[in-house]
Specification:
mainly beta
Length: about 190
């Protein structure tokens, strides 16, 4: 399966998905989750960029080799920044967003504008659509307690996925599908820019 810029990727109630981008960044989608792959350019240069829009569901995001300042994750409530980060992100049907920082540092800025808030490992960022502030609380929320979708202990039990090399001006990714029947299908894919 091939994925393109601005393509919507979603999982069903009984499925999970793990995407490993060309730089090694990993995005896991839990069941009934939706992401828009806005843009991926990875050449190991200052022009690299990774932009994702998480619209609903549970996501586990772990950074790879791409420069952290090149990563932008948008939800209906906040824009998330990363700094060497392992994040568990939950977006409910109303767009309320919780970001559990498992490792590294995460930042949150309200979508409508406002101050950027910094959270370190063990903290949770939270906001609702229309909020002018992002809250930070000690401890990880219940939403941050899950395992990487598609990894050992989750549906399918897949533990690793290799990334495809990115070409000039584009990045590749490998998608692994999981279902409750423990069948998996791997496909190489790339994002067009």
């Amino acid at each position: 399966m091939t994925v393109e810029t601005d393509e919507v990727v979603e999982t069903v109630r009984t499925g999970e998905l793990r995407i490993v981008f060309a730089d090694g960044t990993t995005l896991g989608l839990g069941s009934e989750s939706t992401v828009v792959l806005d843009e991926l350019v990875y050449n190991g240069t200052q022009g690299d960029t990774l932009s994702l829009e998480l619209t609903s569901g549970f996501f586990h995001f772990v950074t790879g080799d791409i420069a952290k300042e090149a990563v932008t994750i948008t939800t209906p409530a906040m824009v998330i920044g990363v700094r060497g980060t392992d994040l568990a992100i939950s977006v409910d049907a109303e767009g309320n967003t919780e970001v559990g920082v498992r490792d590294g540092v995460g930042t949150g800025t309200p979508v409508g504008g406002g101050d950027t808030v910094v959270a370190t490992a063990g903290n949770t960022l939270s906001a609702s659509p229309g909020d002018r502030d992002v809250g930070v609380s000690d401890g990880l929320s219940a939403a941050a307690g899950g395992t990487m979708p598609g990894s050992s202990g989750a549906l399918g039990g897949v533990t690793e996925a290799a990334s495809s090399p990115g070409g000039s001006g584009s990045g590749g990714s490998e998608i692994e599908r999981e279902s409750s029947s423990h069948d998996s299908e791997s496909s190489s894919s790339s994002s067009s820019n």
